[in-house]
């Protein structure tokens, strides 16, 4: 058995030993979005450090634990805290937990993140449905020998974010009377934020928000056959002509405020996935 498959099996077996639940939906909580975890009726909480081959979470605003339980009647696995390439992990390492929740039985993946707003119509704290993405990260989580048992060598990116799930999210936002923006996410490596010239370029590329995560997870989800739905919370405004210094504590506080509205939306959406 190839090395990656062995590692996935070992991690999934360690989780199953602690909790026999089969999650239907997996959720990754981004910066400031850990509040969603509080809505879960938790059956098991497993620190990442106790799962074989999981990296350790080092980013501020990110916890490092896997929760298994129920959210609005849906069986869920919550990856509470994610990994970024700027922490020093390879993209394959960053996305390993996605493969593990797939092995546990998840069929749908919900990704959340904090992002800078490039679209001038966006306001601080807005939630945005990610309809498509642009990958500017160096490297790719699928680099290396492909294990055909895990997924195809050349996964297509025809529909990175599932159309049916996008429609469902729009419908629930409308029913809740919530403003849900929609647009393109661009992934950059970080950890520094961008220069004015870079924000101008990213907007010119057609992106609406910019962040340092999510795209590798979406690629691996495509590879292993998970349907994906993803959201950003706008935590800073990236208007090159009115740029202000950003303060990470402020970004996290805005993510927490905006994350509360997104969390309420997810509590309506997830039971329907
Ligand atoms: N740039 C990149 N990543 C981010 C930003 C940003 O402005 N805000 C939050 N995450």
TrEMBL record:
UniProt GO BP: nucleoside metabolic process
Gene from which the chain derives: punA
UniProt xrefs under PANTHER family: METHYLTHIOADENOSINE/PURINE NUCLEOSIDE PHOSPHORYLASE, PURINE NUCLEOSIDE PHOSPHORYLASE-RELATED
Keyword Transferase among UniProt keywords: yes
One GO term describing the cellular component: cytoplasm
Entry's EC annotation: 2.4.2.1
Tagged with keyword Transferase: yes
Source organism of the structure: Alienimonas californiensis
Task performed by this protein: The purine nucleoside phosphorylases catalyze the phosphorolytic breakdown of the N-glycosidic bond in the beta-(deoxy)ribonucleoside molecules, with the formation of the corresponding free purine bases and pentose-1-phosphate.
Similarity section: Belongs to the PNP/MTAP phosphorylase family.
Taxonomic lineage from the root: Bacteria, Pseudomonadati, Planctomycetota, Planctomycetia, Planctomycetales
Keywords, comma-separated and alphabetical: Glycosyltransferase, Transferase
InterPro entries in the cross-refs: Nucleoside_phosphorylase_d, Nucleoside_phosphorylase_sf, Purine_phosphorylase
Protein name as it appears in the record: Purine nucleoside phosphorylase
């Amino acid at each position: 058995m190839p090395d990656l498959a062995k590692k996935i099996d070992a991690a999934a077996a360690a989780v199953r030993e602690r909790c026999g639940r089969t999650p239907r939906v997996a959720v990754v909580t981004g910066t400031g979005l850990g509040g969603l975890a509080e809505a879960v009726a938790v059956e098991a909480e497993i620190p990442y450090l106790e799962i074989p081959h999981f990296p350790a979470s080092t980013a501020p605003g990110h916890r490092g634990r896997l929760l298994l339980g129920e959210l609005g009647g849906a069986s869920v696995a919550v990856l509470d805290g994610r990994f970024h390439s700027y922490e020093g992990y390879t993209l394959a390492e960053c996305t390993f937990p996605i493969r593990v929740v797939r092995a546990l039985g998840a069929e749908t993946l919900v990704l959340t993140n904090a992002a800078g707003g490039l679209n001038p119509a966006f306001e601080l704290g807005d939630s945005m449905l990610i309809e498509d993405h642009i990958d500017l990260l160096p490297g790719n989580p699928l680099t290396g020998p492909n294990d055909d048992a895990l997924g195809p060598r050349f996964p297509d990116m025809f529909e990175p974010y599932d159309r049916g799930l996008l429609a469902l999210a729009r419908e629930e936002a409308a029913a809740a009377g919530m403003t849900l923006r929609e647009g393109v996410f661009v992934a950059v490596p970080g950890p520094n934020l961008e220069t004015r010239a870079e924000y101008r370029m990213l907007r010119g590329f057609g992106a609406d928000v910019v962040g340092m995560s999510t795209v590798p997870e979406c690629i691996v989800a495509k590879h292993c056959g998970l349907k994906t739905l993803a959201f950003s919370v706008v935590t800073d405004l990236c208007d090159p002509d009115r740029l202000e210094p950003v303060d990470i504590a402020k970004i996290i506080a805005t993510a927490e405020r905006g994350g509360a509205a997104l969390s309420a939306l997810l509590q309506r959406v997830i039971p329907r996935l």
